[in-house]
Amino acid sequence: MFERLTQRLLAEARSPRAEAVLAVVAFVESSVFPLPAEVIFLPMCLTRPERAIRYAAIAAVASVLGGIFGWMIGHFLFDVIAAPILNFWHSMPAFEALKAQTGTGTILLLLITSGAAHLPPMKVVTILAGAINFSLPLFILAAVVARGAKFFLLGWALQRWGAPIAELIHKRLATVALIVLLLAAALWLAKSHL
Hints:
With 194 residues, the protein is an all-alpha fold. Helices cover 81% and strands 0% of the residues.
């Protein structure tokens, strides 16, 4: 299923509807769907590098709006919508484990790591934040920083270096994600011990 959808998104990256499709994918990724927006964002930036920053803005805004939608699902409709979605994607155990250890610092750390490297998936964090009644203004601010930084940095790098940086990102994504996670965890630990 994901392979076919990925191929379709790659084809859409070159279509006149690419920006709208990017916005939809970025929105649903942050609330209910596990396919990352980078699947369409990267090819769009490589096809039209002069528009990379525009694409980054579209992806960041749509992603934050999707995150707000995920927060609302978790806050207002957990039993009706969130639980079935988490069960469908086999994410309920991860959700329950995170919920048991969650405070403000944890949610901020998770927003950074999921926003930058999809660890854990953004939809889990947005729904969790709503379910535990995490401050919506603080949530929005953290999402803007995490998602905005990621998309604008990727857009800038793709505009500047093009295909070589895209290949490096593709090959080293797991390593980069691990480094981001370790740095965020170190910052959180340092802050909690001060």
